[in-house]
Amino acid sequence: MSGFSQVVRGQAVERPPYPRSPLRYGFIPILMFAHGCAGIQSTLEPTGAEARQIATLFWVMVIGGSVVWLAVIGTLLYAARWKGEPHSAQSAGRLILWGGAIFPAVVLMALLAYALWLMPSLRPQSGEPPSAPLRIEVTGEQFWWRVSYRSKNHEASIASANEIRLPLGQRVEFVLKSSDVIHSFWIPSLGGKMDMIPGRTNRLSLLATKVGIFRGPCAEYCGTSHTLMAFYAMVMDPAAFDIWLEAQSQPSEELASDGKLRFISNGCGSCHTVHGTEATGTLGPDLTHLGSRESLAAGILPNTEEAIRRFIADPDVIKPGSKMPAFRMLPEDDLQAIASYLKGLK
Amino acid sequence: MRIIPNEMESLWTLFTAPVVWALHFLICYVSVAVYCAKSSQISFGFDVVRLGVVLVTIMALALIAMSGLLAWRQWGFGTHDPPHDDPTRHDRELFQGFATLLLSGLSFVAVIYVAMPLLFIAECSP
Amino acid sequence: MTQFADRMTRKEAKAQEERLRKVWADPSGWRYWTSVNNYQIGLWYAATAFAFMLFAGVLALMVRVQLAVPDNDFLSADLFNQAFTLHGTVMMFLFAVPIFEAVAIFLLPPMLGARELPFPRLSAFGFWSFLLGGIFVCGSIFFNAAPSSGWFMYPPLATDKEFSGIGADIWLLGLSFIEIASIAAAVELIVGILKCRAPGMRINMMPLFAWYLLVVAGMILFAFPPLIAGDILFELERMFDWPFFNPERGGDPILWQHLFWIFGHPEVYIIFLPAIALMAMIVPTFSQRPVVGYSWIVLAAVGTGFLSFGLWVHHMFTTGLPQISLAFFSAASEAVAIPTGVQIFVFIATMLAGRVIFSVPMLFGAGGLAIFVMGGLTGVMVALAPFDWQAHDTYFVVAHLHYVLIGGMLFPVIAGLYYYYPLINARMLSDRAGKLAFWLMFIGFNVAFFPMHLSGLRGMPRRVFTYPPEVGWDWLNLISTIGAFILASGILVIVVDVLRPKHREPEGESNPWNAGTLEWISEPKENWGVRSIPIIESRYPLWDQPNLMRDINKGRFYLPDAEEGRREGLVTSVLDAQPIQVLRVAGTAYVPIISAFFLGGAFVALTFHWWIATIVSAVGAFAAIVYWLWTGTAELPEKPQKHIGLGVTLPLYVSGPSSTGWWAMFITMIGDGTAFASLIFGYFFYWTIHEDFTAGSKGPGAQWPMIGFGLFAAAWIAMIYARRLNGRGFVLAMRACLMLAALLTICGSLAAVAGPLAYGMDPKSHVYPAIVWVLVLWTAVHAVLGLVMQVYCLARSLVGRLTAQHDVDLQNVVLYWHFLFVTALITFAVIGLFPRML
Prior knowledge:
The complex is a heterotrimer.
Chain A: H1 28-34, H2 49-81, H3 89-122, E1 134-141, E2 144-151, E3 158-161, E4 163-167, E5 171-178, E6 183-185, E7 194-196, E8 202-207, E9 212-217, E10 230-236, H4 238-249, H5 259-265, E11 295-296, E12 301-302, H6 305-313, H7 315-318, H8 332-343
Parallel strand pairs in A: 1-5, 4-10
Antiparallel strand pairs in A: 1-2, 2-3, 5-8, 6-7, 9-10, 11-12
Chain B: H1 16-37, H2 46-74, H3 89-115, H4 117-120
Helix pairs in contact in B: 1-2, 1-3, 2-3
Chain C: H1 3-6, H2 10-24, H3 38-67, H4 77-111, H5 120-139, H6 166-195, H7 208-240, H8 253-287, H9 294-307, H10 323-335, H11 337-352, H12 360-382, H13 385-391, H14 395-425, H15 431-457, H16 474-499, H17 541-544, H18 548-553, E1 568-572, E2 579-584, H19 591-607, H20 611-632, E3 641-645, E4 648-651, H21 660-689, H22 703-727, H23 731-758, H24 767-798, H25 808-837
Antiparallel strand pairs in C: 1-2, 3-4
EC number (chain C): 7.1.1.9
Subcellular location (chain C): Cell membrane
Domain Heme-copper oxidase subunit III family profile (chain C): 679-836
């Protein structure tokens, strides 16, 4: 009775076009699986520099591994079925030396060299803070993401939550932290994951090579609702990104609504911030531009008024273990008005 | 001239080469981990660590080669093929020699594997 | 060698056999459960482990049902988290490791031509501890109190009481209890393999199973103690708020990951090697020839044992460690594939050089190999850091680890079950049921786990209780769930086949597969293992030594009798297995059960913070163990030596390095030293992560640690003198030395705690005082144990059980003191001098 069955998935997202990898055809069982629906969270459809290199490494290993597997199992079956004169112990011993020791030693050494050669180039460090054009600080919290942009075009950092936007073709440095337990930050389409560890600061550098919307889950088990901690990453044209970031640095346009009053009077502002209002709490996600985000509640609900209203009323049902108290005792009017106000924060 | 007595009676000689591998591995890991953790307080560069570890690697390989050589001798320089399963002390010694030689070979390769990162990675970055 | 028996009349032979049977017989009625015989203990152990496996399997099915379709609500988030945590924990700690201990306890004595392992009561104690701890851990889920932080228990999730309830304590304390039992089993197996082989079974003659088990037991000795050290730190944080993993007060959650995986990766090989060891017995039998590449197997086992300790960080590739550090572990992880490849090719080569009879055990063996090779290949992939950055903590890894563990462990164990079942029951399991079970399991397994590779690559993380429909995982998960049920039905077939009554079937012959190794001599209806202890001249004595079985069963070899009504076996030399002693092993007793229950009670009470019950149980356990040692060890024989047949006479009492007790102490202390080394690692780990890891504290100073060291050194010297004086017969001087040593030990312990006390070091305030206190307490607790041993020796001397000739106790205690001296030296040097060197 988790209530998660009530969670409805959000609107259709634009899917990146299907990539063509010539290596794909090497391995038939995988080929069969790999067809069908595309993934917005798939390592096999890379849209980032690192993810692409790793996918190539993967396909090389799949082909090599398949050959090795077939050879070993073929030899095993041959040995089991052989009905003729038994082979001599000498020749069997030579098989151990060449097949069991020398061949793997050589092949594995080559594979190791390939991976080692790859490693330094995958995550080039952009050096100390001033040189990085864009840094995004992401802090894992149970069970959402605190996001803060630091760009050379803006003096102050720009707060957001549960969504990441990044410009196409520019290296972005992520600064990864945690406020409670270990989480792990991962956008499979762009590159590998990196843990967010309390007391430590990790860095990850990603380069997106395709415009689109991708999904990222929390990849380290972080408690009851670990499952319900995800986000969407949008790769944008650099120009569009700059415009968007500029808008994010400003408060949302004021809408004529009494939702704001009810939002404040019910104390929402003690945990949440809405820039340009009295709401300056920092315990929960920043809501300044909530209405414009792709999803709600860390990637698990569609961003609609109805979903906002439900989450305010029953966060403990929708996301067990979340720190937000339930507000189901509020009058329906209040819930509706607050939801409508928040949805309007574009 | 003999550096090591002819009698290799102990079971422990079997483990010489893998123990050298383990020590080499530990030295690689610990020296790099400490250097990277404390690099702000250390005046010399990472290349010094790399060079040091390369020297340790050469020493480890030499030790393993020596263990292999002694084992080869114990095996009668390859004149007695396996299986070494006669109920005699002689066959038991041949077995020990041959097994030690094999382990030396594996340890030799493993030491080379573990040293390979030093060729490719030249900094502490994560 | 036949004259000996020929001189006996038939009647005499019969009487002899009767005496031997009576000595080894199990008690009847409910006292049956006090048996300590290796066959009973091994069987109970295996049955219990299988029961836990079935339980964990049901949990896995619940997990699969929940994940069959997206947005499912079959299980709540919390119950799902408990289920997957318990599934992993139970499979690892209550099935995979114990089942090998069970098989080893059951098979090793007959395989080595021994009657028993050297410490049968220790086996019984291990079994009862395992049963209690296992029920405690498994039962928690019925009270909705099971651990839910994952089997790896990462802090701060698992240390913070806000995030994890009593389940975390149950995990820590319940499993610590079982880990201690595992280390006890390791000690027993090492001593058994090195010292209790039949005469003539030189190390190049040992069955390969014994080689593997020797390596595995050695690995346990180095792998489990780091986890125990981690458990100690962990429980101190949970119970007393010592901040070892709390970054706000200088701790670091990463230290737990290091300690856990230093245990956790070798653990995989601790599970895998014994299963492969079963294959190394099965393949030669069904190829009807000796194994090709005996030395290669030794290379593979020993090589894997070593290399597996250089892999642990590959579980931490995404924690942000420097790439160069990751690369070392990638390299070692690739290297470990070489000895694994060798093992597989040894089997293939043996089959090529023989004539293969394809039977159910071979079917499971070959099927397991096909699965395992695939798991090994994906292992080679995830061992490379870049690929692991993508694959880590996804279903790809779930697929990989199940391919490795089910192919490398479960299938061979089932092969072993079909192969060795006649030794349990004198009857075979059904061939048809076996084939049916195999195909259900093989197909079900691949249907269940192959799609997981793809769901993982498509970004499905592990440990999620549900998933949204449109990410492309739904039908993959549905297939996996269907496969899981096919797999489970295969296992069910085996359960039915094992449990169905077979007493109507005729008994089979005693060596139905025509195997060549010695364990096939033992008969299920006899408890003595071997009728007489043979002289071994081949790796496959049943093939190569004509009439061996007849001569053994006619009592023509060593120790065919039990004149004194005692259970007896032989101790032989390590390399060439020359007989050196007649070892009297312990018989049926209550004391192992009582000790296990008291010790288990202490752990359970501690979980619930019932302090008084904890103390009462701990005192009870202590008293029971002292009683056990006093009455059951180092007994004085009624005569110095005895004839064992074939004109050989051996002593009944030896001490020092040729005795089994000395070896047991030595091996135990190696494990103990490993735990201590892990704590020292923790100390230096904190040094590396902080600019000033002392956080400005001056404690514990250099003065008190140096005084403490001096006192410990003096106590150690006094102990050495006590042994020397005892050897020369100066009894009074020896007692005086012991008393002096005891006094010095007390003073030394006080000096040890005086340092941190004098500087007012508060272990809750910061990790530095906490780790210093842990090291000091470790040394002090060991000193208290040392003190108990000194008093014990004194008491033994006063009642005349410790004399110049009979000095086992003193020899072993002095050995303990060597280790204690090194512990004190390192502790005091580290805490007293190291902060001053900075």
